[in-house]
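Minutes, project check-in
Item: structure for the 134-residue chain
Input as provided by the requester:
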Amino acid sequence: MIEGVILIGVGRNLNRAIRTCYSFGVYDIYCLNCTAKIKGGLYSAAGKVRLHEIKSLDLFNLEHILVLEKTKSLPFLQRSLFEDIKYIAVGGESVTLRQKEFPRMARIATANNLCLTTEAALAIALYLGGENYD
């Protein structure tokens, strides 16, 4: 079960990421080097998702983090990759997350080699890694 989301260098898409996490029942977001502040409407997610500003990833076991990146050599994201995963990490659109820093990474298959927005990648990963949403 996904316990939280780690956002790395996320800027203007922070509000959307918060709403996406709330939609999928994730209530803890850890922000590392995020440049944006919450502004505008969070709608029903307001006050229900906890934002934690962190200075490093030292408090996490990296083996329990699944990092999303568009690197072609990474395996495609699929449900089987979520075994023992507690956190999903996504970078901002201008941030590149590297395999040498993260042992568990995957990419989302798309028709064109274009970076998904933070909230789009989160929605796909949280759907695949979540419980049944009936």
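Outcome recorded: The chain has a mean pLDDT of 87.
No further action items on this chain.
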